[in-house]
Specification:
It comes from Myceligenerans indicum. Pfam families: PP2C_2 (PF13672). Residues 40-78 are annotated as: Disordered. This is Zinc-ribbon domain-containing protein. Residues 83-357 form the PPM-type phosphatase domain. The protein contains 8 helices and 15 strands. The chain has helices at residues 131-147, 161-197, 250-256, 261-265, 304-307, 313-324, 330-343, 361-364; strands spanning 10-11, 18-19, 77-83, 86-91, 101-107, 116-123, 209-210, 212-218, 221-227, 231-236, 242-243, 277-278, 287-291, 297-302, 350-357. The strands form 4 sheets. The protein has a 6-stranded antiparallel sheet. The protein is α+β, with helices and mostly antiparallel strands. It has one domain: Phosphatase 2c, domain 1 (4-Layer Sandwich), CATH 3.60.40. Helices cover 27% and strands 21% of the residues. Strand 10 and strand 11 (242-243) form a beta hairpin.
Length: 365
């Protein structure tokens, strides 16, 4: 395949980075290079406020929405549905050559009232080789650690909620540590194999690394854990949506310093993370948060391939409600969200994991 002539590329007016022909977003700083697609182009899905419909004359309308490339392997696009109320989709996206996102899901029971769900999403750091291998190992190790955990106490009735939350919080931190160890082991094994085969030639390379985001839904309790900028949201059918996680990123530091979310998330270093899993990480202890859903809704765990285009919790909730319609099938909704993100640009890998929460009236009370 020939290399496109540089004169045909788009130069970002914000940071000066050259982008591939037809690109609508700058890969360096995320600045929008071209007009947004119309609602019809976004697979018939109405856009949310962060992605408004804009009428722009496009000299090449056929390329304004690039369809996802055909998967080259199972790793490029895969779906998991361990139960009727838990499912997820992990996709390579439009612009990347490989899928460095990963997810691992598990669930018991036929619903959230009597079952337990584990959702783990890890996003491999693109600048470090073999992060796709490490992210998948981390997600599966964390899932298995959470699945085998047995919290003390019975269902969280009066006086036992705090104990259940504390147990799952400890389990979440332990799972993130095990996931971090898996990333380190993966990097060490790959390095040993490369050295033994003479592939490295004495050249030092960065060890693999990834983000971590996970949620446990258990008997009316939701516990979230994270390192990096993959996110956990609570999206009720009726009420205020919440981003349960708080990004470990440069953008979050900017918002803490007083910048607006739009300014921070479109800055050149917006996606520089301050915590991660890997050998170079200062620690592998997840930050955690918990809540008790009182109304039906969705627990969403996702990579930045989705929230790049829809960040605010209320906007994410609106998007999910529009795409899901009347269905409560998490696999259909997850697939629709991935297609929507690809149609909006697909400039990163996309992972969407969902658990449908429908608390029993007495549990919510």
């Amino acid at each position: 395949m020939s290399t496109p002539d540089e004169n045909t590329k788009s130069r970002c007016p914000r940071c000066g980075e050259l982008s591939a022909p037809g690109a609508r977003f700058c890969e360096q700083c995320g600045f929008e290079l071209r007009g947004r697609p119309t609602a019809e182009e976004i697979l018939g899905a109405p856009p949310t406020e962060p992605i408004p419909v804009v009428t722009v004359e496009d000299p090449d309308p056929d390329s304004s929405v690039t369809p996802p490339p055909a998967p080259l392997s199972e790793r490029d696009h895969f779906t998991e549905k361990p139960s009727s109320w838990v499912a997820g989709v992990c996709d390579r996206g439009v612009r990347h050559a490989r899928n460095e996102d990963a997810m691992a899901l598990a669930a018991t029971g036929t619903g959230s009232a009597g079952g337990t769900a584990v959702l783990v999403v890890c996003d491999g750091v693109s600048s470090a080789p073999n992060s796709d291998v490490a992210s998948l190992a981390a997600a599966r190790v964390a899932r298995d650690a959470l699945v085998t955990f047995d919290p003390a106490g019975s269902l969280p009735v009066r006086g036992e909620v705090e104990r259940r939350v504390a147990d799952w919080t400890q389990a979440m931190v332990a799972a993130s540590r095990q996931a971090g160890d898996a990333v380190v082991r993966t990097g060490d094994e790959i390095a040993r194999e490369a050295t033994a085969s003479g592939q490295r030639g004495g050249i030092e390379v960065d060890p693999p690394a990834c983000t971590f985001a996970a949620a446990v839904v258990d008997a009316g309790v939701v516990v979230a854990g994270w390192l990096g900028d993959s996110r956990v949201y609570w999206l009720p059918d009726d009420g205020t949506a919440q981003q349960l996680s708080v990004d470990d990123s440069w953008a979050q530091e900017m918002m803490a310093a007083g910048f607006t979310r739009e300014e921070a998330e479109h800055s050149p270093q917006a996606h520089a993370i301050t915590r991660w899993l890997g050998r170079s990480a200062p620690d592998h202890d997840a930050h955690c948060a918990a809540m008790l859903p009182e109304v039906p809704g969705w627990v969403l765990v996702c990579s930045d391939g989705l929230w790049n285009y829809c960040s605010e919790a209320e906007h994410v909730a609106d998007l999910v409600h529009r795409l899901s319609g009347v269905t409560t099938d998490p696999s259909e909704t997850a697939a629709a969200l991935v297609l929507w993100a690809n149609a909006a640009g697909g400039r990163d890998n996309i992972t969407v994991a969902l658990a449908r929460v429908e608390p029993e009236p007495e549990t919510a009370a």
